[in-house]
Amino acid sequence: MMASPATTTTTTKTTATVGPTTTTGSSGFSCCPANGESSSIDDSIELNDSQEGGNNNTVYHNGLLEKQDYHFPKRPPVDIVFRDIRYDVKRFNISKAKFESKEILHGLNGSFKSGELTAIMGPSGAGKSTLLNIMAGYVSAGVSGMVQVNGKSRSHNSESFRKLSCYIQQHDALRPWLTVTEAMTCATHLKLGFGIGMEEKRKLIEKILFMLGLEQKGNTPTMGLSGGQKKRLAIALEMISNPPILFLDEPTTGLDSSSCTQCISLLKRLAQDGRTIVCTIHTPSALLFEMFDQLYTVVQGHCFYQGPTQEMLPFLGDLGYHCPGYHNPADFMMEIAVGEYGADVGKVIKAALKKYYEISSRCIDLESEFDDNVKSIQTGSIGAKGMEMCTMSKNANTIEYEEEDIFSKSKPASLVMQFLLLFYRNLLMTRRNYFLLCCRILAHATVATIFGYLYIGVGPNANQVLANYVYLYGSMLMMVYTGKMAVVLSFQIEMESLMREHFNRWYKLGPYFLSVLVLEIPVQIFCSLIYVVISYHLTGNYVNFERFCVFALFCIAGSICAQSWGFFVGATLSVKLAVFIGPILAVLFSVFGFCTRYVDITPVFKWMWHISYYRASFHGILNSVYGMNREDLHCPETQIYCHFKNPVLFQKDMDIEHVDMQSNLVLITLIIVTMYISTVFVLWYKLNKR
Ligand SMILES: Nc1ncnc2c1ncn2[C@@H]1O[C@H](COP(=O)(O)OP(=O)(O)OP(=O)(O)O)[C@@H](O)[C@H]1O
């Protein structure tokens, strides 16, 4: 049942006033007549029950399902000011055989304020995403300049800033197999920990889903949501911790116009509740465009315009560029930005810079007046709009907050709980997506049966030792390839989700990696056992339980070791390289097992024999079959002479009569541990490379 507004868990007392949830009208747009599409935007239509989210409190407004009386607890406003932001990338120039530096952003200045929805616009390749990445703290290497948060300097990869903000990237990177409620519940446990009760969490989830118009989608798997619903879910997941700052990279890309409107209306409403919301956007419709409070336009890495959205056309008009009637102002600005109508882009950039300096110098004056306790600031000198442009570092202090809500009680889940939650989530996803698991199990059973019948009953026969040798070698290949290839793309496939969740501080890398291992290792052990049990018996290798256990142990050890290599290769290389290099490595090391005698190996490659986990596990299974004081093999009466009747002779021929089983196991274990540590290191580097 949906919680009624009256049951909201928060007890918020705040002196901050929140603006009404209405959107800006179209009056500020000279080239968008009010009788056009914008004329309808102030219409509020009561939803009937058949519409999504039908509810007595639900009003359809600008495409947004407004949930009246539902608000997130207020957070202190956070204003961001940035000055002289430059971004350099280093690229290797092959023809000159040296690294070259290229500046992408050329000293951007500006501010993003609380309570406002800001759009970053500009032509393709202008630097929008780069600016957003820098502001969100997602990129810091190569960045110079200053970013201030509520008047305090912030480092470009500030950890504390990440606690205040969330970054929703272009690709939703959601978990397709989880239902909306499951995804929300898991994220709530991870983000808010267990200091607050289940009931409070449940109500919070209901409230967020209700506010975002997803309340009827709770049981829908994420992959069954529409593009717009996925975007809303991505926002809902981050709203759990109620961050005061939201960065969104192209939230409307791939959405139809009504979903776009819903998405931006939602952001607008979240901004009106006091948040700082910044998003990049491509060619919005006139309707969408005017929903933004502020506009920051980037062209060729320079600021082209910044300020209130309604003032963009007058700004361009002052420079002699007049928007034709019935023309979308956003389109017009983009056309000017790429030099259409004979526009001088450099002139606009200079004018934007001049305007910025004019306003900021007035802001400095105003701030000093503020410091001098001048109660009535004379805004007349710069005008009300100029005043709005100023980002007063004291802003946060001017609003008193006295809040008691679940966010103040919450603390992120502990590492152990993170691990348990992620493991549970993996289990859920595996249960839903059981097709892959079934394929893995079936593949092992099928190959085991085929191998078993190909080499049926060869195990005890002295005249079929070579056939058995091939079976054993084939078995090891099977273990290594399935172990490695089943996981080689694991991280590649979920790198985007991992990046998003990790960057937004859902969990640490350690619990995440452990939760993957704790699921993957038993699955691989189970699959290996299926193969071993079927093929071992069909080939007649079963002599006693001890030999079987040793055989299974080395098969599993080899397989898990290959799997650890698979994780490492997958975490390190790109998809194309990983699927190519993975098998190459397996082939390379398998050479040191099959018919390769140590004495015959070229000295320069002898080290490979020593570190080959394939060789170690293959020798282990060979020894479990023919070593360990195996009795004489059966020689058919029809055969006059069986050379390998005594299996030791075979071991001697293969130069493996002295297999040190313990050393082999230790080697395999060491390699497994090394590969896990290396994988964590590579993932950590990728996740924290800024
Ligand atoms: N790490 C990098 N190495 C080299 N070039 C880069 C790097 N990051 C960004 N660039 C370049 O900087 C420019 C701006 O890129 P950015 O992704 O910010 O553009 P954008 O405005 O978001 O474009 P779009 O709208 O097409 O996504 C592009 O020319 C891009 O190739």
From TrEMBL:
Single annotated GO MF: ABC-type transporter activity
Ranges where the ABC transporter domain occurs: 89-325
InterPro entries: AAA+_ATPase, ABC2_TM, ABC_transporter-like_ATP-bd, ABC_transporter-like_CS, ABCG_transporters, P-loop_NTPase
Alphabetically ordered keywords of this record: ATP-binding, Membrane, Nucleotide-binding, Transmembrane, Transmembrane helix, Transport
Location of the protein in the cell: Membrane
Transmembrane segments: 434-458, 470-491, 512-538, 550-570, 577-599, 665-685
Residue ranges with Low complexity bias: 1-28
Region (Disordered) residue spans: 1-33
UniProt protein name: ABC transporter domain-containing protein
Organism: Anopheles atroparvus (European mosquito)
